Amino acid sequence: MRLDFWLCVLGLSLAPAQSSQEVVDPATERARAHYAAVLEELAAADVSHLSPAQLGARLALIAELSAYRERGDFTRNTDFPGARVPYFVDAEDRLCAVATLLSVSGEDALVRGVAVANNHVWVSELAGDEAFARWLAQNGLTFEEAVRIQGPANPPPEPPPPMPPPSTNAPTVPLGSPENPGRGPATGAPGSSTGGFGPTSGVPVLGPGLPGAPGTPGAPFTPLAGVERESDDWLAWWEVNKLRWLAPALRASVASDDDLTRPENEADRERRALVPRIQRELAHAQAEVRAAAAFAYARAARAAAVPELERLLADASLTVRESAILALGASDSERGVHALLSLLRTREAALPTPRARALAIVGLGLARMHGRGQGTDVMLAQLLGTLERKGDDDVLHAVLLHQTLAPSAALDARVRCATGRYREDCEHGTARPATRGRALEALRFDAGGVAVLPRLLDAAHGRVVDERRSAAGALAAFPAALDPLLTAYELEEEPLTRAHLLLAIGEAGGERARNLLEERLERGRKAERPWAALSLGLLAGAEWDGEARAALRGALAKAGKGERDAFLLALGLARDAEAHDALVRALVDGKSDRARMFAAVALGLIGSEEGLDALRAAVGSVSCSFARSGMALALALYGDPEDVDLLVRLLDAERRPESLRDLALALGLRRAPGTVPGLVALLDSDPAVATRAAALDALGLALSDDARMALPVLAEGSNPATWPEWVRALARMPL
Questions:
Q1: How many Cβ atoms sit within 10 Å of the Cβ of residue 25?
Q2: Long-range contacts of 61-64 (CB under 8 A, 24+ apart)
Q3: Residue 356 in this model has a pLDDT that exceeds 70
Q4: DSSP state of 46
Q5: Helix (H) and strand (E) counts for the chain?
Q6: How many Å apart are CA 251 and CA 230, to the nearest integer?
Q7: Distance from C-alpha of 349 to C-alpha of 236, rounded to nearest angstrom
């Protein structure tokens, strides 16, 4: 039985109150919208298990919450400028929604007790409170519903900045121009390091078309010309995160064993036979080739590669030296681990690069991810004090990357301190903003589980926009976080942060998440519709949700020009086989190369064999290298050995660095029969320098037994807009 029936019988309405002529600030309106959504959820809940007494008490509390919403006299945050902070009771004795419901039930003592113990408590922290649990049971409410009801207090509106005095002599120059770099059109919210994922946001290259290519950070992305800025952001998110879905589909997992103990087989013989051929590339005249060869050699020779990699630490090129450090971690050997530990203990003057210690820590994370270096996390935790004094914030950031690659309880305490939200327990100084964001993201690996949830909620409603985005990604990993995520989305106003929250809601999954995403897909802001589609695709793919898939198919039929590409991709993420015909039509008849590419990727993710012939024809018909390399990845998803020659030819003909990287991934990760001989033949043909380096990247990946890649792990739930430049550089390496 649904409660909305009884609300109707009793004459109670959940419809928004008619607004009078008074002006209400946007934050109050968002809070009212939050409570309206909560009231709808409470009304839709199944209450057939409640006793008459519980049902009556529940109805009374819903009526009180509706009245609370209509009054709009919510708690006010007077202590934390710019943040949304829960106040059980504010400075003027206003009660929050949950405290109001407690009070009208005669639980004033409980209200006072909570306010005295922790007036800024999140309801999720009351899970073990017996009196609160008893009150919930008596009134027919669930703990999750109480969490959902809570809305943190909004800060007072910030006064507008003072206007500069007029000048009669200064020439008129447009704001935001190089001559007048002042306030101009907003490119990001206060507290945001950049505008987000868009063409000028400086995100790392993880695929074709994004800024951050070597030597050209933040370069414009020409395939997106003429597309709205806010609509662009989803594409950059995909490029950063696509290996999460493409890498597992491209390559089946293979167990990795120690070189010295696992039995000889055909793959081993092929790999060992290629070691001398790859080793020759370490002496190539071009640093780009030597850097790529370092990774390929590490994967081919493994433990035997370490002496040669250590010699590369003296190479004339900084790029080669840094690649060699990381390649030690990719060598899948204990010998490589010991070399990295030695770097951590090397005196400053003898280090091969200024960032050697930070890279060595990331290398150890790679080794731990692949099952090597057991116990090194404890050693690292013991060395941290000394290493941080010598390596500044980069060492701490590297530790957070290590924790993401190979979570360890030994590093939990340092991760917590790095967030800046455990200051009462920490002696460390304040980390850089980018490092704080990465630390928040790493909290999802904390051994304490939901114990860190309140600190993430603080960040999700905090003043710093980038930290709100990072917290959203971390919250998605907690099963109990859907209710707080829904509330954060309803109260958030910054567009890209709302997008991050939509993705987190989709990752959290469940019927209520699907309902919200379908509603946003149908009636949301235009710039949010692509995000809602992608999030719904993630949910449908993870839960095999037929209703969500049907909603996406219906939305595609009505999609506008600026959102159609995202909807095509969403159907692939949803693994919707019923979308096959629509996707083939989009691939064959699409009006843009980009749309055809996303149709191809969706078909590849679904594994629709019927689309393979159309895809082969399309790869040769597109003029845009961005779309061509994306289609090559889609083609590789099918794993047909007949396509290896085509992919090798595309690699040989390509000149765009980002597209070369995608082609290397397509060949190396899929490792279809004929791949290794084809790549060796390409190397022997003396190709262009960039092509040679990409072929080595592909060859190294093809020779690796371990299917896991570090880059999708580092990108998951992360806010790339805050990545330091050296972390962005990692994204250009075959990790």
A1: 12
A2: 61/101, 61/104, 61/105, 61/139, 61/141, 62/3, 62/7, 62/12, 63/10, 63/12, 64/100, 64/101, 64/104
A3: yes
A4: B
A5: 36, 0
A6: 33
A7: 40
d(CA 222, CA 470): 28
Contact residues for 524 (Cβ-Cβ < 8 A; gap 6+): 532
CA 727 from centre of chain: 15
Lowest-pLDDT choice from 232-241, 299-308, 593-602, 676-685: 232-241
Task: Indicate the angle between helix axes 495-508 and 465-475, nearest 10 degrees.
Answer: 10
Sequence-ordered list of residues with C-beta below 8 angstroms from that of 297, at least 6 positions apart, any chain? 275, 278, 279, 281, 282, 305, 308, 309, 327, 700
CB 356 within 8 A of CB 364: no
Residue with tokens 């897909």, as numbered in its chain: 521
Query: What DSSP element (H or E) covers 247?
Result: helix 243-250
DSSP codes, 518-586: HHHHHHS-GGGHHHHHHHHHHHHHHHT-HHHHHHHHHHHHT--TTTHHHHHHHHHHTT-GGGHHHHHHH
The yes-or-no verdict on residue 254 having pLDDT over 80 is no
Asked if 622 and 654 count as a contact pair (C-beta separation under 8 A), the reply is no
Closest CA to 679 of 719, 714, 648: 648
A 10 A CB-CB count for 451 gives: 11
Report the greatest alpha carbon distance in the chain: 84
- Buried (b) or exposed (e) across 340-363, using 16+ Cβ within 10 A? bbebbeeeeeebbbebbbbbbbbb
The DSSP result for 151-198, as a single string, is: -PBBPPPPPPPPPPPP-SSS----TTBTTB-SS-S--S-TT-SSS-SS
Residue 127 tokens read as: 């899970």
Q: What is the pLDDT of residue 265?
A: 73
What distance in Å separates the CA atoms of residue 509 and residue 228, rounded to the nearest whole number? 29
Residue that is written with structure tokens 């005249």 in the block:
285
pLDDT at 375: 94
Q: What is the pTM of this model?
A: 0.87
CA pair distance 718, 469, nearest whole angstrom: 8
**Apex 669 CA angle, 663 and 671, nearest 5:** 100
Q: Which residues contact 560 (CB under 8 A, 6 or more apart)?
A: 526
Tell me the pLDDT tens digit for each residue of 463-501.
Answer: 999 999 999 999 999 988 999 999 999 999 999 999 999
Q: Convert the pLDDT of each residue in 19-72 to its tens digit.
A: 444 556 899 999 999 999 999 999 999 999 999 999 999 999 999 999 999 999
Q: Which residues, other chains included, contact 280 with Cβ-Cβ below 8 Å and sequence gap of 6+?
A: none
| Residue found by looking up tokens 């919210």 in the block | 189
Q: How far apart are CA 90 and CA 93, in angstroms?
A: 5
- Distance of alpha carbon 302 from alpha carbon 695, whole angstroms: 19
In the chain, the amino acid numbered 318 is L
Is residue 257 predicted with pLDDT exceeding 50?
no
For 638-683, what is each residue's pLDDT tens digit?
Answer: 989 999 999 999 999 999 999 999 999 999 998 889 999 999 999 9
How far is residue 445's CA from residue 448's CA, in Å, rounded to a whole number? 9
- Please give the pLDDT value at position 708: 84
